[in-house]
Amino acid sequence: MLSINCNSQEDAELLLCSESEEDRNAALAFLYDHFKSRVASFIRGKFPFFEYEQVHDVITNAFLELQKTASKTGFDPEGVHRLIFTIAHRRAIDLKRMEFRWERIKDKCEQEGLHQQAIQNQPLPPSRFITAAEKNEIRAKFATFVQDSGLKRVQLAVARVMAEDWRSNLPPSDIRDIINSRPGFDVTLAGAKRAKEEVLRKFKEYLKV
């Protein structure tokens, strides 16, 4: 049961610092609904070439980062609206840089070999470089890989998170937070990073078979 109702931005800012996970989740849900349209307009204005899915990914990742930031000791909830836009802008820049790296890969590859090289470097390259059918095929292969590869416990947990949130290409810090929200896990950032690297390495080998 929530300690107080979350019916305004002021309530949400207060609940972000609550010791209750329910309160914090209620605050984030309210802030997401309250700001998502404005953040989307802001991102489209700054990055007009972003597609709908890219804008959605930026907003989702921004609120995941806000969730982590709010859980830290000393977090000041005042001005959280400015923080949301700042985080979203940083995430959009990160996405733009990733897109630029893929453009460089595209320029260096022969058209026939583009998709295979992309697959070997990352499980899922940006959607504009592969067809929907190819994307679904890669995702299906990854799902089969997760089931059949005999991964260790933490690696398997990481792989399942990656499969669940395929489009976002979550960083190890987000993967760690998701895993640790589940019973029986206490994974460090370094552990999540190592596990993700090992999952990607084994998946690349799996694709070559």
The CATH class of the largest domain is Mainly Alpha
Low-confidence stretches at least 5 residues in length (pLDDT < 50)? 123-130
What string, H for helix and E for strand, traces the elements in order? HHHHHHHHH
Q: Give the CA-CA distance, first to last residue.
A: 52 Å
**Count of individual helical segments:** 9
Structural class: mainly alpha
Radius of gyration: 19 Å
Give the overall pLDDT as a whole number. 77
Which CATH architecture of the largest domain? Answer: Orthogonal Bundle
- Strand tally: 0
Strand coverage percent: under 5%
Largest sheet: none
Cα shape: globular
**Which fold does the CATH topology of the largest domain refer to?**
Rna Polymerase Sigma Factor, Chain: A
Question: What count of domains describes the coordinates?
Answer: 2
**Helical residues, percent:** over 70%
Tell me about this structure.
- It is a single chain.
- This protein is mainly α and 209 residues long.
- The chain has 2 domains: 108 residues, Orthogonal Bundle (Rna Polymerase Sigma Factor, Chain: A), CATH 1.10.1740; 91 residues, no CATH class.
- It contains 9 helices and no strands.
- α1 crosses α2 and α8 packs across α9.
List keywords for this structure.
209 residues, mainly alpha, Rna Polymerase Sigma Factor, Chain: A, 2 domains, 70% helix
